[in-house]
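Minutes, project check-in
Item: structure for the 179-residue chain
Input as provided by the requester:
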Amino acid sequence: MDPTKISNILENSLSQTLSLYYPYAGRLKDNTIVDRNDAGAEFVQVQINSPISESLQWHNNAIEEMIFPQGLPWSNCTNRALVVAQISYFNCGGIVVSMCISHKVGDGHSGYNFFMDWAITSREPNLSTKPCLYYVEKSIFPPPPNGPFLSPLCTSNKDESIHRRYTFLAKNLMNLRPQ
């Protein structure tokens, strides 16, 4: 499939998915409140002039850093998107879809659900059943009476980040499938 067509499908389905996960499309206000202003996510496209097999080599950090959005949601939380999606195109025809979500709006489980719902919407844009999401609103956890807590701006400290990478041989994956 043509990369332009793939990008259009992924970008449109991301927009549809964000309409369900509406806090993800907002921006932080005072670094503590999500302003649901529908500003959207960042959608980044990257061309990598090497085969995808090079990125699977354990010690190729330069390519790995190109594949994953680097610190974008945390560089300045009040002005940046809370979700960043990146599509990386390799010269061999391979494609990697990666995403970062600020922990101000979602944890790992909600990020996983968002990613899966985006994938479903990409494959089936006219699907009639949409996920039913529940957000904890201020009626359950009201804000402090004197306004939001003032906290410092989000900063990214790469030294404090934990990064895990798992690679599997194709034959090992095939052994798992029947189970």
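Outcome recorded: Helices lie at 3-20, 52-55, 61-67, 72-75, 108-123, 170-176.
No further action items on this chain.
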